[in-house]
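Milestone 3.1: sequence recovery, worked example.
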């Protein structure tokens, strides 16, 4: 541990305590009303509207022909910081009290959440310290530092979560990457945009790490359009939600490893599991090889650079193609585009 990464600021005691697996172990009664609802997502949209980009959803002629249905791409890799994560980060951070804002933000992440929290903290004039594993790809580390956050390198993602409580105890506010209702509702704003842009929507395919994105998107769409099918996608080695759904409870992965680094949550949360149980059609697990092949295909044919956590939605669409008819309207959520080029160019 680096000496300059020891928490040292006095202040109010945090309400949420992180467990080593990243789940919130202590949750004080929630004070923001019905956040995990369509209304919660709509409130998030109003709250974060001036802080995030409204990304486009475009029809892909080539993919529509290939898959025999109407395929659209939600171009969320053009979001600020290159991924959807700023939606949830802003929705949470904009609700903090003046005292919490003064205390600073702490987060644990191996990727896009780190960048998002660092960026939002800079925009909202808060200080942020982010615990990141040594193995985090350099593009995420560089961007997080460039946004002005203090990065503390630790051995693993589990260690990153272990370090959080010492900061909370000194008044820093923890922003959980996927279990916090305000974070989930913030991610859901992406789903509202999809519904606006594709009125005939029948299917959405969205990737899952801890399940905040998929849960939020489902919350935005299902209450309005129950017939729309929301499909989750994970990669082999990072299939915490598929395992949790089949076990009927949260399952801890001994080790999460995948080329889709940002999907490698060690476990989902009770909240996101409940949302998946309630709303998801199914969770498809694709191989790293197929996710990478889809990444190259999207780059070459659609001219968009995505990370494997996004391109896996195309790999899943190929597996699901028999579920779609020529009248369906299927959206692939390209939720992030942060990838170090050396990882994808052989
Ligand atoms: C690009 C990208 N896609 C998907 C996910 C999964 O999001 P969640 O953890 O909310 O399921 C992440 C998480 O970091 C991500 O960065």
């Amino acid at each position: 541990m680096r000496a300059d990464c020891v928490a040292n600021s006095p202040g109010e005691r945090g309400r949420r305590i992180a467990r080593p697996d990243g789940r919130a172990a202590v949750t004080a009664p929630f004070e923001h009303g019905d956040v995990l609802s369509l209304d919660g997502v709509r409130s998030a949209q109003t709250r974060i509207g001036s802080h995030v980009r409204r990304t486009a959803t475009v029809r892909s002629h080539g993919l529509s022909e290939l898959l025999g249905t109407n395929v659209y791409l939600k171009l969320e890799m053009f979001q600020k910081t290159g991924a959807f994560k700023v939606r949830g980060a802003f929705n949470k951070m904009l609700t903090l009290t003046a005292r919490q804002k003064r205390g600073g933000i702490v987060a644990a992440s191996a990727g896009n959440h780190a960048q998002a929290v660092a960026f939002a903290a800079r925009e909202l004039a808060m200080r942020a310290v982010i615990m990141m594993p040594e193995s985090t790809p350099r593009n995420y580390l560089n961007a997080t530092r460039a946004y002005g956050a203090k990065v503390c390198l630790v051995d693993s993602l589990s260690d990153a979560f272990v370090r959080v409580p010492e900061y909370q105890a000194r008044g820093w506010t923890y922003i959980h990457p996927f279990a916090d209702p305000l974070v989930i509702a913030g991610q859901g704003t992406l789903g509202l945009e999809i519904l606006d842009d594709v009125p005939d929507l029948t299917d959405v395919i969205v990737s899952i790490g801890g399940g905040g994105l998929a849960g939020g998107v489902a919350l935005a769409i299902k209450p309005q359009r129950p017939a729309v099918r929301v499909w989750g996608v994970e990669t082999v080695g990072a299939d915490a939600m598929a395992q949790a759904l089949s076990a009927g409870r949260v399952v801890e992965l001994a080790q999460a490893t995948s080329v889709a680094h940002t999907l490698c949550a060690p476990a989902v949360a009770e909240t996101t599991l409940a949302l998946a149980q309630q709303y998801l059609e199914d969770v498809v697990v694709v191989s790293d090889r197929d996710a990478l092949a889809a990444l190259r295909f999207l780059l070459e044919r659609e001219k968009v650079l995505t990370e494997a956590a996004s391109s896996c939605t195309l790999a899943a669409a190929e597996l699901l193609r028999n579920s779609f008819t020529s009248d369906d309207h299927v959206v692939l959520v390209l939720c992030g585009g942060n990838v170090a080029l050396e990882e994808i160019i052989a």
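The longest helix spans residues 181-197. The domain at 85-174 is CATH 3.40.50.1100 (Rossmann fold).
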